[in-house]
Every structure is written in C-alpha cells, then in structure tokens.
Design a protein that fits this description.
Length: about 110
C-alpha cells in the first residue's frame, strides 16, 4: 500500500506482497485499486491505503452511503470501479463487496 505521499506504508497492520506470491488462479478476483472517498479537513486527500483491517467499517456499513472509506459512486450509488491484479477494471457492487473475504482481498491462496 502507498500513503498519500506515494511512499510505502509499513506497519504491523499491512501485509504487502509481491505479485509473484499472489494466487495466480484468482488474479481476476483480487482487488488492487478501489475508489476511495475524499477525506474531509485539511489537507484534503483520498483514502489512499485500505487494507483488510482498514475496511472493517465499510464491511459493517448497512448501505453503500454509510461506508466511510470506499466510494460506491456508480450505478446509482451502489457500485465502485475496481482494478484487479490481472489488469482488468470492472464495477463491484456493494453486496459483492460485502462478500469478499480477507484471503481474496489480500491475494492469499484460498487453501
């Protein structure tokens, strides 16, 4: 993950991995870039880094509008565009997002 200055974030909460270690059979299912909401306050910036731990509030949201970090701005406010590890970009609706698990979000093998 990158922070707003474009440098790597390193903390006990992230789990960055090399592309070569990501489950090859599921690269078309693993999100790598999602649409984030703009933070309020100063300075204004986007939600640049969202790992599994950071999106727990979004997973708990009752509606897409209630998601504090991810921006479901398309499809009547129910979808966001997602860049997947295989290079494809497709919309992801809120219901499908809520069905993602940590292994998919992080690119880990399902086992």
């Amino acid at each position: 993950g990158l922070n707003t200055s474009g440098t790597n974030i390193a903390s006990g909460n992230d789990n960055p991995r090399r592309l070569s270690t990501i489950d090859r059979d599921r690269r078309s299912q693993i999100p790598i870039v999602v649409e984030g909401k703009v933070q309020t306050g100063s300075p204004r910036s986007s939600q640049a880094f969202r790992n599994w731990g950071n999106i727990s509030a979004d997973l708990a949201a009752a509606t897409p509008a209630d998601a504090p970090n991810l921006d479901f701005r398309h499809g009547g406010g129910n979808r966001m565009n997602v860049l997947y590890v295989d290079g494809s970009v497709r919309p992801l609706d809120f219901g499908a997002f809520k069905n993602l698990d940590e292994r998919t979000w992080s690119g880990l093998p399902l086992r």
